[in-house]
Amino acid sequence: MTRLTDKISELEKFLKELRRIAPQSLEEYSADIEKKAACERYVEKIVEAITDIAFFTIKDRRLKMPESDIDAFNILLENKIISEELTAMLKNAKGMRNIIAHQYGAIDDETVFEAVTKELQRDAKELVNAVKG
Fold first, then answer.
1. Structural domain boundaries of the chain?
2. Burial of 124 (0-12, 13-18, 19+ CB in 10 A)
3. What is the CB neighbour count within 10 angstroms for residue 64?
4. Helix runs in 1-133, H state only
5. Dihedral of CA 6/7/8/12: which sign?
6. Model confidence over 115-127: pLDDT tens digits?
7. In Å, what is the CA distance from 53 to each residue of 20, 60, 113, 114?
């Protein structure tokens, strides 16, 4: 298996684990500090895997090497591998991951909960389908 295939498998494992532990409501998410911390950690791991998938795709297709993680998403867009909408969503996910990882200011529970329960699953699947296609 290639590094890209390995990373996709890892991403799918993280997404499955996140689905397993994610609370059913924002209230439950906000009230359960341990679940919240676990979800935030999975957000970090998932976004890191998404970024790695972007880099491995660029390398495998011999595209221009990106100067940053955000640039990697732009290169996938420029080469018509992903859509403008997905590019924006991945950039937002990367920004949220940085806020969580580096504790820049307050973390908005509602934003993270939406990412955990809807957005990351959807965007990660779309990316995987795009790079496989």
1. 3-132
2. buried
3. 10
4. 3-21, 26-31, 33-60, 69-78, 84-102, 109-114, 120-132
5. positive
6. 999 999 999 999 9
7. 23, 10, 23, 22
| Contact between residue 97 and residue 43 where contact means Cβ atoms under 8 Å apart | yes
Provide the 10 A C-beta neighbour count for residue 76.
26
- Angle CA(87)–CA(131)–CA(70) in degrees, nearest 5? 30
d(CA 7, CA 68): 19
Residue 76 identity: L
Instruction: Yes or no: say if 104 and 92 are a contact pair by the CB < 8 Å rule.
Output: no
First and final C-alpha spacing in the chain: 17
pLDDT at residue number 107: 80
* Cα distance between residue 84 and residue 4, in whole Å: 22
* pTM for this entry: 0.92
Q: What is the pLDDT of residues 36-61, one digit of tens each?
A: 999 999 999 999 999 999 999 999 99
CATH of domain 3-132: 1.20.120.580
